Amino acid sequence: MEVIEIASLDDPRVAPFARLTEAQLRNRLEPEKGLFIAESPKVIERALEAGMRPLSFLMERKWLEAARPLVEACDSAERQVPVYTGDREALSALTGFELTRGVLCAMRRPVLPNVEDLLQKARRVAVLEGIVDHTNVGAIFRSAAALGMDAVLVTPTCCDPLYRRAARVSMGAVFQVPWTRIGQNVRDWPDEGMERLHALGFKTAAMALSDEAVSLKDPDLNAEPKLAVVMGTEGDGLSPRTIARCDYTVRIPMKHGVDSLNVAAASAVAFYQLA
């Protein structure tokens, strides 16, 4: 391994781990230069299995030998992936957080497919509208992978599934479930996005509290050959405009006066029933 001790927290080589904001990492002006940070060996391993390109590692000194197979799997005859290291205190000061299992990897962001290509063979799709909590997004991706959803679409106001915490909470499922953005700015959703889904043969189901909502067990809903399950942001849920554009409004039957579940928990119930 090419191991490099960090002598200064201002070292530009570790800027992706410390000083670049989420917006800078995504680099919308030059997407081909965008990066993301994978955290923990399991997440890094799944990213590599999905073909992600590693650029550099950052890890505590005590993890160097344990992580050697992971690092060496990234090396080629032409290039070794550098490993920057230091003790826990130095790395925590650098990143601003405690490293999970002591290992981070900066990777090149993949080019996202367009919606039409992604959904060519899909039957069950999740659409995440404006979900801003990275933990919820990661948990939804993990449920989507485990429970058989074919793809995930995120709207322009939804947070980044490749953000470090989202990818870690998903246990790397963000690299297992095909996904892309449906629209690049807020004007693209819901009107244009719904039209694209309908043009591809999908019926859309808004998960929302409404007196007109059908049960998640509704036989017509479950019999749809192509279905996009649309889930909304924490607190406010889906926008009225989105609900109005959907073919179904759906709710999960509840007891004891409970009206709703957290969006991540609701996604698991919905995916299990519908996928």
Describe the structure.
Helices cover 32% and strands 20% of the residues. It has 12 helices and 12 strands. The strands form 2 sheets. It has a 7-stranded parallel β-sheet with strand order 8-7-6-11-9-12-10, sandwiched between helices. Strands 1-4-3-5-2 form a 5-stranded mixed β-sheet. The longest helix has 14 residues, at 134-147. The N and C termini lie far apart (44 Å). The mean pLDDT is 91.
Features:
seven-stranded parallel beta sheet; 275 residues; five-stranded mixed beta sheet; 12 strands; alpha/beta
Instruction: Give a quick account of the main beta sheet: strands, pairing sense, barrel closure.
Output: 7 strands, parallel
The arrangement of helices and strands along the chain is: EHHEHEHEHEHEHEHEHEEHEHEH
**Number of alpha- plus pi-helical segments:** 12
Mean pLDDT rating: 91
Q: In which order are the strands of the major sheet placed?
A: 8-7-6-11-9-12-10
Strand content: 15-25%
What's the shape?
Answer: elongated
- Category by helix and strand content: alpha/beta
Q: Work out the radius of gyration.
A: 20 Å
Total strands: the figure is 12
Instruction: Work out the helicity level.
Output: 25-40%
* Low-pLDDT windows of residues: none
Distance between the termini: 44 Å
